[in-house]
Amino acid sequence: MWQRTARKGESQTNLRDPEKGEKQMKNLKKNLKAVNRELKALTTKTEKIVKAVEKLEKAQATQKRKAPVRKAKKVAKRKAPAKAPAKAPAKGTARRKAPERKTTRGKGAATATDRVLSIIKKSKKGVDVPTLIKKTKFEDKKVRNIVFRAFKQGKIKRKAKGVYA
Predict the structure, then answer these.
(1) Which of 65, 91, 124 is the endpoint of a domain?
(2) What is the pLDDT of residues 69-125, one digit of tens each?
(3) Domain count, the chain
(4) How far apart are CA 19 and CA 9, in angstroms?
(5) ∠ at Cα 69 (68, 71), nearest 5°?
(6) Domain that holds residue 32
(7) Does 106 fall in a domain?
(8) What's the CA gap between 56 and 53, in Å, rounded?
């Protein structure tokens, strides 16, 4: 068996006594095994947390894709059949008429995107965003979002930096 010299603060008796050395080795092995178990538990916990975060990111991404596209729909009025006469409401209960929906667009009016695209199509040299803001009187953010979306969809092309045609 090999022997080493004592380190600073270590007594010579610990190194030469085989029983104490074996006990120390057993204690070290126990401690290492305990640390190993704890590390494994921590890795499984972190993997679970990573999976949960990925699920949340996917859910948020799908919500972002679905949420922004909302357009007002025109409501078609239906005529009631002439065969059956309408019944009068019972005494004490009065029926309320549903309020008529107001549409934001008239018959000839177009969406904000249509307005911006028509201005861009009419220009021969191309239009920049500040010009679009002046002509449409929309807010800066709204115009930039419309231009970005139209560019991604391939409806318009970028002639130069900030100029669209």
Answers:
(1) 65
(2) 555 566 666 666 666 555 665 666 666 676 665 555 555 568 999 999 999 999 988
(3) 2
(4) 20
(5) 125
(6) 14-65
(7) no
(8) 5
